[in-house]
């Protein structure tokens, strides 16, 4: 998203100023015709104080310290590329709706007569004035929105909720304008669908995602053991999970149609969604499958655990009456929270406020109590914190990370280019937006931390 850092070079004869002809007979009309409008536009923009130089430089020049160059970059290159000089002005939108002189800056043209002008798709002047009549006393309603409305979180149109944007994108007031510029820039490309601007659009994207899910059973057996391990997989999960000596039943959910017959498991499903939607769908469509089990562990397919480790883990949960737990992460694993990595000297487990969605295990009663939590999001981000809060509220401090069993998380978490996250983005789901919305809705803490004494 960064623009070029080079500044244009003006070629000139060695013996004459740049705005004079080679013959030395007077001003070069073409040169003056190019430079003078830029100078006039620069003055208009600077005098308005509407151009957000530091935010523009941060977004398009990779550093806010290049703010002194931002206006020149905008006038010479950025405006042609559709970059915004401030959140609620879109040069492409303006040019398409209002003719202007050739070579003139769209932003400068707008600033000379902003009242009623088409600033951007996200600012509806009539709607805004009807709800904020005090804006009539300003130089223009747009100026009032730009100078005061963003800080006050006044909605610029029915399609944009600044309160939602501030919460969903975790933005403080003093950074809200910058965040809006980044969001609007992302919405110009493939990110438009996932960069939602209000709760209704988020919920519509989630509903559409769920509506497209198709759950199909390839094999449904019967419960044979007291514990169940669910694996969200494309077939690449560790073969050790299928060990003949395992003391748990195995449920595989393929998110792509398997190319080969799945390895032996008590249950095999195909569901073209996410791990969270698969769990929610199975709990709703096949609740009887989970009823016989004392504990259910929901694994990602890049978690390396042996059958013996899993038996030790389930026994630790049973012997210590834990309702929600996960194995600790082994050294060298990929993870987001330090509290989940194996801790030297721990006698067996440590109590925490919640565990991560990559491998939560729930008791029968905790799973029943948390069933609705799995329907609160698509990506799983924030769902784990909600499950933890629900279990602690109902059953007390029965949430833990089990240090005596260490699992290796083998794949890096790639929030930009990972296959899962590209898939989510294409379907209008931003994991960060889901997480912050869930945390805000339920007044939950983001940090995963220890909450009490260790135990064995």
Layout of strands and helices, then pairs:
Blueprint: H1 29-48, H2 53-60, H3 67-78, H4 91-97, H5 106-112, H6 125-131, H7 141-152, H8 162-168, H9 176-187, H10 199-211, E1 215-220, E2 227-233, E3 249-254, E4 267-271, H11 275-285, E5 295-300, E6 303-304, H12 307-319, E7 324-329, E8 349-352, E9 361-363, H13 364-370, H14 383-395, E10 399-409, H15 419-426, H16 431-442, E11 450-455
Parallel strand pairs: 2-3, 2-5, 3-4, 7-10
Antiparallel strand pairs: 1-4, 5-9, 6-10, 7-9, 8-10, 8-11
Helix pairs in contact: 1-5, 2-3
Summarize, please:
By secondary structure, this protein is an alpha/beta fold. Helices cover 37% and strands 14% of the residues. It has helices at 29-48, 53-60, 67-78, 91-97, 106-112, 125-131, 141-152, 162-168, 176-187, 199-211, 275-285, 307-319, 364-370, 383-395, 419-426, 431-442, and strands at residues 215-220, 227-233, 249-254, 267-271, 295-300, 303-304, 324-329, 349-352, 361-363, 399-409, 450-455.
What does this structure look like?
This protein is of the alpha/beta class and 456 residues long. It folds into 2 domains: 29-188, no CATH class; 213-455, Spore Coat Polysaccharide Biosynthesis Protein SpsA, Chain A (Alpha-Beta Complex), CATH 3.90.550. It has 16 helices and 11 strands. It has helices at residues 29-48, 53-60, 67-78, 91-97, 106-112, 125-131, 141-152, 162-168, 176-187, 199-211, 275-285, 307-319, 364-370, 383-395, 419-426, 431-442, and strands at 215-220, 227-233, 249-254, 267-271, 295-300, 303-304, 324-329, 349-352, 361-363, 399-409, 450-455. Strands 1, 2, 3, 4, 5, 6, 7, 8, 9, 10 and 11 form an 11-stranded mixed β-sheet that branches. The longest helix is centred in the first third of the chain and has 20 residues, at 29-48. Residues 1-27 are annotated as: Disordered. Residues 1-18 have a biased composition (Polar residues). InterPro entries: Nucleotide-diphossugar_trans.
């Amino acid at each position: 998203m960064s623009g070029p850092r080079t500044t244009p070079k003006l070629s000139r004869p060695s013996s004459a100023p740049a705005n004079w002809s080679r013959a030395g007979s007077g001003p070069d009309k073409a040169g003056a015709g190019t430079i003078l409008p830029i100078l006039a536009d620069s003055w208009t923009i600077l005098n308005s104080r509407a151009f957000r130089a530091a935010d523009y430089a941060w977004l398009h020049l990779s550093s806010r310290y290049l703010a002194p160059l931002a206006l020149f970059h905008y006038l010479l290159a950025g405006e042609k590329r559709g970059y915004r000089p401030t959140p609620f002005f879109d040069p492409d939108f303006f040019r398409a709706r209002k003719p202007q002189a050739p070579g003139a800056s769209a932003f400068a043209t707008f600033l000379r007569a902003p009242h009623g002008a088409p600033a951007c798709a996200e600012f509806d002047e009539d709607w805004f004035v009807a709800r904020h009549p005090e804006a009539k006393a300003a130089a223009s309603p747009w100026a009032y929105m730009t100078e005061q409305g963003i800080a006050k979180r006044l909605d610029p149109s029915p399609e944009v909720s600044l309160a939602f944007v501030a919460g969903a994108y975790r933005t403080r007031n003093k950074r809200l304008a910058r965040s809006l510029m980044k969001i609007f820039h992302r919405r110009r490309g493939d990110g438009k669908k996932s960069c939602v601007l209000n709760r209704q659009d988020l919920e519509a994207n989630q509903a559409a995602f769920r509506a497209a899910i198709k759950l199909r059973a390839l094999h449904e057996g019967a419960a044979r053991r007291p514990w169940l391990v669910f694996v969200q997989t494309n077939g690449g999960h560790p073969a050790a999970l299928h060990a003949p000596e395992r003391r748990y039943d195995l449920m595989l959910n393929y998110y792509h149609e398997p190319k080969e017959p799945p390895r032996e498991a008590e249950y095999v499903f195909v569901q073209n969604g996410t791990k969270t939607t698969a769990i929610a769908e199975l709990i709703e469509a096949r609740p009887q499958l989970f009823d016989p089990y004392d504990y259910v562990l929901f694994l990602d397919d890049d978690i390396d655990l042996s059958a013996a480790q899993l038996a030790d883990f389930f026994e630790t949960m049973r012997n210590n009456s834990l309702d929600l737990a996960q194995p600790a992460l082994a050294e060298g694993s990929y993870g987001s929270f330090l509290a989940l990595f194996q801790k030297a000297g721990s006698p067996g487990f440590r109590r925490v406020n919640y565990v991560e969605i990559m491998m939560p295990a729930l008791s029968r009663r905790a799973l029943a109590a948390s069933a609705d939590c799995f329907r609160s999001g698509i990506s799983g981000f924030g769902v784990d914190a909600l499950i933890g809060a629900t279990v602690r509220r109902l059953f007390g401090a029965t949430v833990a990370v089990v240090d005596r069993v260490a699992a290796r998380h083998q794949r890096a978490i790639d929030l930009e280019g990972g296959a899962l996250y590209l898939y989510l983005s294409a379907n209008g789901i931003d994991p960060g937006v889901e997480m912050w919305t869930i945390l805000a809705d339920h007044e939950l803490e983001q940090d995963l931390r220890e909450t009490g004494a260790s135990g064995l």
